[in-house]
Amino acid sequence: KQEVTQIPAALSVPEGENLVLNCSFTDSAIYNLQWFRQDPGKGLTSLLLIQSSQREQTSGRLNASLDKSSGRSTLYIAASQPGDSATYLCAVPGETGANSKLTFGKGITLSVRP
Amino acid sequence: EPEVTQTPSHQVTQMGQEVILHCVPISNHLYFYWYRQILGQKVEFLVSFYNNEISEKSEIFDDQFSVERPDGSNFTLKIRSTKLEDSAMYFCASRALGKYNQPQHFGDGTRLSIL
Asked: Largest Cα–Cα distance in chain B?
């Protein structure tokens, strides 16, 4: 059974800092990995999807990397801003295919101090 | 940009009552999902739907739950007799056809409060 872990649960950084959010998963046979952002009381916004054949995927100040063999992904946020404050979740689809259910980590709550 | 729309944003219901949560997935998407998130906990999968039938469901999705796609645009989740522990944020998601590179897109959720 796939387990997704995100540690630490919370992170507080000063504005302008570059930071890395970690995600680990137990079953390395994944099709892709998706990173989401969740603002308090809101839905999930898809940030990046990185396919199993890719090592990195970039969107603006965000860069996601994937190391399947070690069961890890990182989300790199460059030059953090107070508007980046949110919970960041990673998720992987199940063994039946890329269209199957997502298993989520609990998320990392990021606070960027002005 | 197209988005998944969920209504209502907040639903308050007495225990034992039936509730229907509504979703309009993105129009050209073919896979549909329901997830829920109990306060302070992980997002959990409930059910997926493809080609007019359930393709996968979790242990949470028991006989009290059902899904329907009554027309070409809506996707509903029904809870027949609600329990206190059904209180959660319920998210609908949809996905386009595609092998590995299509993300699931989520709506803003319906907060369900059972009294």
From this structure: 42
Tell me, what amino acid is at B5? Answer: T
Q: Is B46 within 8 Å of B60 (Cβ atoms)? A: yes
Rounded Cα distance between B73 and B67, Å, is: 14
**A41–B111 C-beta distance less than 8 A:** yes
**Proportion of chain B above pLDDT 70, given as a percent:** 98
Cβ atoms within 10 Å, residue A52: 16
HEC letters along A41-64? CCCEEEEEEEECCCCEEEECCEEE
Cβ separation B101–A94 shorter than 8 A: no
pLDDT digits (tens, 9 = 90+) for A36-66: 999 988 899 999 999 999 999 999 999 999 9
Among B42, B56, B99, beta carbon nearest to A106: B42
Greater pLDDT, A95 or B84: B84
